[in-house]
Design brief:
single chain, alpha+beta, 2,3-Dihydroxybiphenyl 1,2-Dioxygenase, domain 1, 8-stranded mixed barrel, 4 helices
Length: 165
């Protein structure tokens, strides 16, 4: 086995950058309620909006609903399933993605692409990775590198504000 911190050129230090684990669920509000009863989670206000994405090279619009647990430092993200998209519910695959903070999304996207990962979904734009992205390795492991400059927006939402203002 190769790799390790000393060999991973430009690697992001996972232990200091984890943000959240994402789960796709059939009914966001029902799952949030069940997980509150079971685990004591409290949740940020559910955010719903139409979002433009580029998935597997094709642009489309999707309606997304999302919430995050308020407990941290690593949080749980619940995303309501959207059939025919990357957010389609796949039973038997409970973890949808792992998210981690990065100083610069374009740099991290380029690093992962050079290592053989592929862009599964991103926002429309001129670059390979724009604004937000899921990248997938050859084994199907999906990550969401999230730009650190978005932390203030997330904190505002977790405090009860809007994610999309």
């Amino acid at each position: 086995m190769s790799g390790g911190p000393s060999e991973a050129i430009g690697a992001v230090p996972w232990g200091r950058t984890f943000s959240h684990f994402g789960y796709v669920v059939d009914d966001l509000e029902a799952t949030a309620g069940r997980w509150s009863d079971t685990f004591g989670f409290e949740w940020a206000p559910v955010q719903r909006r139409e979002r433009s994405i580029r998935m597997e090279g094709a642009e489309q619009s999707v309606d997304l609903a999302v919430t995050w647990s308020l407990e941290g430092p690593v949080r749980v993200e619940l995303l309501e399933a959207v059939e025919g998209t990357v957010w389609e519910r796949r039973h038997g695959h409970p973890i949808h993605h792992v998210c981690y903070w990065v100083p610069d999304l374009a740099t991290e996207g380029a690093r992962l692409l050079a290592l053989g990962w592929r862009v599964e979904v991103t926002e429309p734009g001129p670059d390979e990775v724009n604004g937000f992205a899921y990248l997938v390795d050859t084994d199907g492991f999906r990550v969401e590198p999230k730009p650190e400059d978005g932390k203030a927006t997330i904190e505002r939402w977790l405090a009860g504000g809007s994610l999309y203002d």
